[in-house]
Amino acid sequence: SYGGIPASAAAEGYQVHERRERGLPGGIKYIVYLAAFAFPARDPSLLIAIGGAYAPFMNNKGDVIALGEGARDALFNDCDTETADQLVAGAVYQSTASFETPTTFAAADVAVSKTYVVCEDDHALPLDAQLAMITALGNVTVIRVHSGHCVQLNKELVPKSLDVIEAAAGYEGLAKA
Prior knowledge:
Structural class: alpha/beta
CATH architecture: 3-Layer(aba) Sandwich
Number of domains: 1
Order of helices and strands: HHEHEEHHEHEHEH
Number of helices: 8
CATH superfamily: Alpha/Beta hydrolase fold, catalytic domain
Number of strands: 6
């Protein structure tokens, strides 16, 4: 979910049209958000966007956040028990700066095409929050899936996820998705 913030920020100055204006080849032509924070405006930090407090499954350890009790259900609710336990055990810290630093380039600033994959059974980024971001963004292709937070780990939905990404990369049309 956090990945939507750096994905949007990374597009600044590197979208195809921006590079073309500078006489440069290539560039970002499409962004796919997977149950991600896709802010409709600049400036809010992730912490402000989620209500000013860390989620109950996050343990603030000063400069970093560790996964705590409840992370398994929040992030991996539709994974099998063994996989979910391995993912929680192998999780690394995330910096508090990633939560507390205001965004300088948001999803709304991204001019290239965007697809947002809504994970309807997400326990970390609730459905209503995902839909609110999509509504505020406007021009975005929406794909809804019955998945928890990590659709890329849902074995039944991996083919659909790949179809969406391949469509964004210019392969098959989004009709397959």
